[in-house]
Design goal:
Elements lengths: L12 E2 L6 E2 H5 L3 E7 L5 H19 L2 E7 L3 H15 L7 E3 L4 H5 L15 H4 L3 E6 L5 E7 L7 H14 L4 E2 L10 E3 L5 H8 L3 E4 L2 E4 L4
Parallel strand pairs: 3-4, 4-5
Antiparallel strand pairs: 1-2, 3-6, 6-7, 8-9, 9-11, 10-11
Helix pairs in contact: 2-3
Length: 217
């Protein structure tokens, strides 16, 4: 199943370190980030879960919940969480779901083309790619990113993208390349200059089709 931007995020119910949860109910009125990992007790995954553990307060500021997906059991997750906290100096205070069945990995098309699924699989066998999905309160997919197993994710970029999504949500706005919160944003082409001025005030016209305005807080 191919997951595309603006698709409704496929719903599922599964066990997790926070108990049984159903994705859409868990998301509620928040934004959510779903991110997958090949296996517990692996080096890159531990650094990534450690990065997320330290960033939980930043996600909470943005009304965003975080859920990890790994292909081990809840029992193994709880053991691994001790390693994550020891490494990061912060608890992994977010649900990590039990995807031993690969239910979610398959539902969200997280497996690479050459994956094989034998009994006793190793991370290289199942190789759940490092995939990120940002989901909106409307349960629609807002962003996807995929990384190979050998490349750890840049969570600063994930937060930057989340900020951009929230800044432009339900607004005729877009963000330019390398945008950071507080910088000017682009006025959508569905507004002419007068409409843009009426809605946003001052606009900076660089080109007829490239107009900037101040981002609203």
């Amino acid at each position: 199943m191919t997951i595309r931007i603006n698709d409704i995020a496929p719903d599922f119910t599964t066990d997790s370190t926070a108990g049984e949860l159903t994705l859409h109910d868990w998301v509620g009125d928040s934004y959510a980030i779903l991110f997958s990992h090949p296996k517990d007790f692996t080096p890159v995954c531990t650094t990534e879960f450690g990065a997320v553990a330290k960033l939980v307060p930043e996600f909470k500021k943005r009304n965003t919940k975080v859920m990890g997906v790994s292909v081990d059991s809840v029992e193994e997750h709880h053991k691994w969480m001790r390693d994550i906290e020891a490494f990061a100096g912060a608890p992994a205070d977010f649900p990590i779901i039990d995807d031993t069945s690969l239910q979610v990995a398959k539902l969200y098309d997280m497996l690479p083309a050459e994956s094989v699924l034998p009994d006793g699989r190793t991370p290289a066998d199942s190789a759940t790619v490092r995939t990120v999905f940002i989901i909106g309160p409307d349960k629609k997919i807002r962003l996807t990113m995929s990384y190979p197993m050998s490349v750890g994710r840049n969570f600063a970029e994930i937060i930057r993208a989340l900020d951009a999504i929230q800044t432009t949500d339900n607004q005729p706005l877009a963000t330019p390349a390398d945008w950071r919160p507080g910088e000017d944003v682009i006025v959508g082409l569905n507004l002419d200059d007068e409409q843009a001025k009426d809605r946003f005030g001052e606009i900076d016209i660089k080109l007829p089709y490239l107009r900037f305005t101040k981002a609203r807080k």
